Amino acid sequence: MKKNTWISGGLVLALGNAGGLAGGPAQAQQLAEASSSISLIPQPVRLRAGSGSFAITPATTIYIDPQNEELRAIGLALGQQLKQATGMQPPVKPATVGKPVTGGIFLTLQRPVDTLGAEGYTLHVQPARVVLAANTPQGVFLGLQTIGQLLPAQRGAGAVRLPAVEVVDKPRYKWRGMHLDVSRHFFPVEFIKKYIDYLARHKMNTFHWHLTDDQGWRIEIKKYPRLTSVGGWREGTLIGHYSDQPHRFDSTRYGGFYTQEQVKDVVRYAQERYITVVPEIEMPGHAVAALAAYPEFSCTGGPFKVERLWGVFDDIFCAGNEQTFTFLQDVLAEVMPLFPGNIVHIGGDEAPKTRWHTCPKCQARMKAEGLQNEHELQSYFVQRIEKFVNSRGKRIIGWDEILEGGLAPNAAVMSWRGMEGGVMAARQQHNVVMAPGSHVYFDHAQGEASLEPLSFGGYLPLSKVYSFEPTPPTLTAAEQTYILGGQANIWTEYIPSQQQVEYMAFPRMAALAEVLWTPARQRNWTSFQQRMQQQYQRYAAWGVTYSRSAFNVQPQLTLNPAQRTTLVSLQMDAAGPRIVYTLDGSTPTASSRVYTQPFMVSGSATIQAASFENGRLMGKVATRALLMHKAVAAPLTLTNEPHRSYRGTGAYTLLDGQHGSANHADGQWLGFYGTDLIATLDLQQLTKINTVKSTFLRAVGSGILLPASVEVAVSADGNTYQTVYAAPVPAQATQARPAISEVRADMQNIQARFVRVRARNAQAPGAAKPETWLFADEIVVQ
């Protein structure tokens, strides 16, 4: 294609140099400085602020390459953006080759220049004109999102100026995705389109649509109408959290589904925004909704009801029944033509083998195929489905469980149980999408649980999302090429509304967008925090119900055992507001003591902290209690080590003066699986003791029980111990949510140097041995 003569030499130079896009610390610093006045998320590969600005006036015109309908559609979208910002909608006209134009915005393709790939672009804003160039319309569309961020966040009427800037940009990863579960809770087409718009504004290119699960089948299959008429509806939904015991349900019939015409409409809408929609049809597990409609494809024959409860269920598709494969192939034969992308997600996760182990058909299948175990049977299942999908010109991706028993030849892996599955797949030369629960499960709480709405649990603040690195350094350079990118997952067990989806997605989507777009060496957390200040304004302008948890203060208390003091650090993920605090338990106000640096506390204190801006409370008040008792920082010996997943801050978790919350994953608990807590404290000298209190967590739904009994013994010399307290712990309560229980041992002025606390692990009902969790926290000696 002939190059238009109105493109400036500076832009052509930028295009010519675009091959060397990787930067380093110096480049990151330049980007940070440029971003002081220009706030772009994700951060571009190269950004240079210029002088002056381009004024959008009634005379402004959008010019496109002649006879290019895709560019025309993008031009019209830009015109609509400008209308929202200024009240004026510039016309879209074909550019005239060789005729310089002032006051225009030019959208053009530069086909001879390919160093930016299909999604890269360059943007040159000058006082005289704006030029957005790319190799493909998709690149132009992505550049359009950058122009949108140069506009003021507030909508209105009047003159608007775009700051002069040069941008050379392309994404780091091919797969930049967001997932949405519409099975646990259903969302209408209008919201799905809005969700896709959100992805586009963050330069995402993949929407993973989780359409089927135990709690509802959400896509019309014409050959099997009962999938939606029966499988699309459940007779109630769990009330509260899964860990609440006993489980309670409402009686409201709940459901819905998308017709194939609606699916086509959504896919078309996404295509216009250069987003690929990846459908997920779960198999062989998470299939109860399908089996409720067609129980003949199960191992037992049913009957089944669409699940009201969350979790993992034993009834899955029968791998020994040939008709199961006919059914699933029929389903996929209807699903695949609706989605023009070349990837189909087949689930593959959390498929218990209980039914297969006792199913005559499944066992006969294993014998006939020479399969050694049920994991190999699942591999057989997945490989059969893969062959069918491949025969239709598409490929499968599945959760990392599809690695078990042997990976299908052409399958890609979505790694969610950490990064290990992705590493294993990449080493086998299979494509990988990283989606570890530790960093990108957006159904996890983004603030302290007590300050957040009901959620799955966990703790995933904005800063942790930003720290996500999809490419493990343990892979070789060749193996790293199989990492396609990453995505965040929004599972909706505890997300019943559109507003709640937005709350859980934002602002964390912005952090993920930058992780997946910007070169790793150019990511800068401090710069991102600053740029988020304007991004929050954009969210407000979009009408997004975003979370303000980043404005909550996160107190960090670190014990100094040698000095028996505690270092207090107050941090938050948002930039801008100042942090204030009190130490006496009073509620902080705008005039409270201002936090400037970490400080020491040598005694007991109740720390309350909050962020304020212009006298306005920006987040919620955080509270941490610090109790300085006789055993704080005392030498401590544990007979049994805690489980590697729940080590808290080490053994001193039991003697740091801090109590954990009802969230077992808050880092303040030691977790013992199937073993007892036996802690021996050395008070260093004979000490008068009146009370020993030990703290335990009960969360029945998570398998965490109170100890069966607690014993306290004391000694003067560390050799001979006297038991001063021994009692069973009252029977396990089952009526409430996770709660903290204190066991108090009173004694009369006993002189001792050593204290030993033993909490015996409770035995789960019907279990042959104690394989339950025991969670212990502070041991208080007074």
TrEMBL record:
The keyword RNA-binding appears for this protein: no
- Chain ranges passing through the membrane: none
Keywords assigned by UniProt, alphabetized: Glycosidase, Hydrolase, Signal
**Single GO term (MF):** beta-N-acetylhexosaminidase activity
Give the signal peptide range: 1-28
Residue numbers annotated as active site: E350
- Give the UniProt record's GO annotations in the biological process aspect: carbohydrate metabolic process; glycosaminoglycan metabolic process
Question: What positions does the domain Glycoside hydrolase family 20 catalytic occupy?
Answer: 173-519
InterPro entries tied to this protein: Beta_hexosaminidase_sua/sub, FA58C, Galactose-bd-like_sf, GH, GH29D-like_dom, Glyco_hydro_20_cat, Hex-like_dom2, HEX_bac_N
* CDD domains reported in the protein's UniProt record: GH20_chitobiase-like
Can you list the GO cellular component terms from the UniProt entry? membrane
The Beta-hexosaminidase bacterial type N-terminal domain covers 38-169
Q: What range(s) does the F5/8 type C domain occupy? A: 650-761
EC id: 3.2.1.52
Q: Which reaction does it catalyse?
A: Hydrolysis of terminal non-reducing N-acetyl-D-hexosamine residues in N-acetyl-beta-D-hexosaminides
Question: Under which main EC class is this enzyme filed?
Answer: hydrolase
Per the record's keyword annotation, is Hydrolase included, yes or no?
A: yes
Which family is it part of?
Belongs to the glycosyl hydrolase 20 family.
PANTHER family, sorted: BETA-HEXOSAMINIDASE, BETA-N-ACETYLHEXOSAMINIDASE
Protein name listed in UniProt:
beta-N-acetylhexosaminidase
